[in-house]
Structure formats: C-alpha cells, structure tokens
Amino acid sequence: MLSKVVKDKLISIVSRENFDDAKTERLVYSYDSTPNLQAMPDAVVSPRNTKEVSEVVKVCNENKVPIVPRGSGTNLCGGTCPTEGGVVILFKHMNSIVDLDEENLTITVQPGVICLDVANAASAKGLFYPPDPGSMKIATIGGAINENSGGLRGLKYGVTRDYVIGLEVVMPNGDIVRTGGKLAKDVAGYDLTRLMVGSEGTLGIITEAILKLIPMPETKKTMLALYQDLEAAAKSVSKIIANKIIPVTLEFLDQPTIRVVEDYSQIGLPTDVQAVLLIEQDGSPEVVERDIEKIIKVCKQEGAVSVQVASSEEEALALAAARRTALSALARLKPTTVLEDATVPRSEIAKMVNAINNIADKYNLQICTFGHAGDGNLHPTCPTDARNHEEMERVEMAFAEIFERAVELGGTITGEHGVGVMKAPYLEWKLGKEGIAVMKAIKLALDPNNIMNPGKVFAKSYRKRVVVSGQGTVFAADDKKQMVVSK
C-alpha cells in the first residue's frame, strides 16, 4: 500500500476526487482483457493535464512506486494489469481532440480519445485515419500507441506506428519531452517517436500525439472467396500480392471460425467450406474495378470454389462487420477465450495454419484460426475454461508450441497484440539474448528505478514450457525455477 506521505502528495496534485484507493475502485483496474490474469493496484489517479501527470510521476519516481498508464484495458497481453501494484493512471480527463489541421493533414489528440472518434473526426473532413484495431470502438488512442495496434487495414495502410509523427511524453523522472511534429521530413537526432510507439508504457507516459491523416479513398469493393482447401486459400494470398495488388484487407477465416461467426451474425456465410478469404480494395473506381477483377482471376486459378462480390454497400459492410465479430462470436462458446497472435511471412501461412491444427489435435483442444492473411498475422483462438486447470495447462503448452513454430517459419511471437506479461517469456526466442540486452539497456537508461509498467516486456526468466497451478499461470524456465504471474 502507498505510504500516507505519498498518498497525500498525489491528492495534492490531482485533487481528492481524482484519487481513489478504495478496494472496489482498485478492483475495477486490477485486470484487463487478458484472461486469467489479475493483480490489485495500490491506487488509481486521474490527472487533468500533462503538468499533473509530470508531478505524479515525479512523486512515484522519488518513492519508487510503480506506474501503469491505462486506456480502456482492451489489450490481450496483460499490458495494463498492475502485476507489481503501484498507481494506475487513467486519462478520462485527457480525452480531447486538440486540433485537426487540414493544411498539414494532421490530427492532434490526447491519450484518452477513443480510436473510432479519431477516425470519425477525420472522416467528417474527408480525411482518413486508417489504423482499425478490433476494439477501436472502445480502445483509446494512448493504448493503441503503446501497443502499436494494427487491424484489418494493416496490409495496405500499415499500423499505428506509421501514423504517429509527433508525441508529448512524460519521462520516468517527470521531464516533459516533445518528439517529431507536423512535418513530412525530420531526421534531427534519434527517432524518439518510433521508440515510444509500441513501448507498452515501459519508457514514458504519452500525454499528446500528432497523427498523420491521408485523403479518404474514393470508393471500395468487398468480396468473398470460398475454398475447400486451406493450402489453396493460403496460396491465393501470396499470389495476389505477387501480382502487385495490395488490397486494403485480406482476411482469413477457417471453417470452425466461419461456423461460429455465422451462428452469431446470421448473414448467410457459407459454413460448408474449409476457409474463406474476405477481401476489400479501395481507391479510385477504375483502380478498384481493375484490382477486383485481377483478384477474382487469381482466386479461381488457385482453386477457389466460388467468388462472390458484394452487390451493395450494405452487404459489404455486413461482411466486414461479421469478420470483426469473430472474437465476440467465439467468446460465446466457453467461459474463457484465449486469443493470441502469431505472424509469419505470408508465403508460410498454409504451413502455419496446418501447424496450428496439428497442435490443437495433439493437445485435444478446439482452436479456431482467423486473421490478417495479407500480412501473415493469424489469430489462433481457443475457447476454454480457466477453472479447468488441466485443460488450461494444455492450452498454455499448445500456444507455446504455436509461438515456437511461428519463429521457426521466420515469423514472430506477436504481430499486433504486444508483449506485456503473457508474451514476455517468449521474447528471447524472437530477439535472442543480444536483442534483449539492447532493450534492457534502453530501459535502464531511461527508467533506472523501474517504475514504468514494471513486469512487462521483460520476463524474469525465460521458459521452455508452461504449467498451470491452482494459484494461476506459472512460467517455468526449467523443472526447478518457476514464476507465478497471476493469482
């Protein structure tokens, strides 16, 4: 618990109504969207501006109190779970769109602004903010920047990092730093903006962001390609890109996912096929028409049993909305839903999907796979029950093998969900000891007291296998050393 001295100092900064250490309030912020992970913070504070954030950080740094910056808590890697207690910082008062600059094609926002509100504000001016994480209706832009969120449009338009061109950041010692700006070009010094994006709150607290906007595409078309062969669907993805066509979305759903989504959305998705590709292209009418025709040809050449182009905007929106409901649909099956992401080169998608299916059979689990096939980002998802400790053990071991296989295929342990707590024990598989050492050196230099979201990204030990006990998830580096991360 916080000392009375620290508590009084924090209250003097943010006011009594913006400080809460009651058990009920702390419980609300003891977990995020990550299943089976919970830890109580010591207090929750809601600063009203950057100066107050800076003063809060100074107090915490002087007293070595952990800080966890938090948006809506939609992340899936335990990134906002206060595993080492401390202070959770909320941005409910810092939720304004500061400026929409049509001359420079930028929008400046505070961290508490909802991602969809950013997109809608841009759209109202005929402009486009492309990043579209699945939780964009409730996720905040601060959280999206911390996790470097992606989304369905990542293939053509990139991820959050590609649109953040300037930041205001409170450093671990309380200093306020501004990076980048409303500039098309800027090579002055280290790229601190990109360093902060995706750092998961471990290097500083983002209090303002300048985001790049682009012109709104003139039109778009949506289509479904149906397959009875997973490999044919995967080969179509590679062939489309090889034909120098970059669709705005190129999504994959396997049969178990299709069936669950159709049961949930009731829009007439075919449930008797092994896989579908949901493809959308945008741009000028002539380019869209030309690309869709080429994509249809490629899909048929690669063995699609049927190709259907949406006949209306309403039908297109329904198809896209159905894909976005995949997690919600799967969450209906069992009390706990473990949604992961593993990314491989798009040429290796078929091997990865087959590996996921084989691993599911090995551990006697139902794993549904969907995701952003165009950029190789797959989301193997397992409906389970956290109360069934034996099954959860199999789930953990299955996902450990899935991550290992992804790395073997030249991929990564996470394409957009972040590292947080849950992926930290696998990070060395991707970066090697040398890469981890570089990251730790940066962390130590900026945050010597380790107050910024401690326990995230860097695992205390790196595991070869995972077991689950009645106390929670246990990471085992070997048969003798274990680290409990949830209770």
Task: Describe what you observe in this structure.
- Helix 8 packs antiparallel against helix 13 and helix 13 (349-362) packs antiparallel against helix 14 (389-408).
- The chain has four domains: 4-90, Uridine Diphospho-n-acetylenolpyruvylglucosamine Reductase, domain 2 (2-Layer Sandwich), CATH 3.30.43.10; 97-215, Uridine Diphospho-n-acetylenolpyruvylglucosamine Reductase, domain 3, CATH 3.30.465.10; 219-322, Alpha-Beta Plaits; 336-484, Alpha-Beta Plaits.
- It is built from 15 helices and 22 strands.
- The protein is globular, with a radius of gyration of 23 Å.
- It has 487 residues and is an alpha+beta fold.
Measured on Cα atoms, how large is the radius of gyration? 23 Å
Poorly predicted tracts of residues: 462-487
CATH fold field value of the largest domain? Alpha-Beta Plaits
Approximately how much helix is present in the residues?
A: 25-40%
The domain tally reads: 4
Would you tell me the structural class of the helices and strands?
Answer: alpha+beta
Indicate the mean pLDDT.
Answer: 92
Main beta-sheet strand count, sense and barrel state: 8 strands, antiparallel
Give the CATH class of the largest domain. Alpha Beta
Please report the distance between the alpha carbons of the first and last residues.
18 Å
CATH architecture of the largest domain: 2-Layer Sandwich
User: How many distinct beta strands?
Assistant: 22
Which range does the strand content fall in? 15-25%
Rough shape?
A: globular
Enumerate how many helices there are, as a single number. Answer: 15
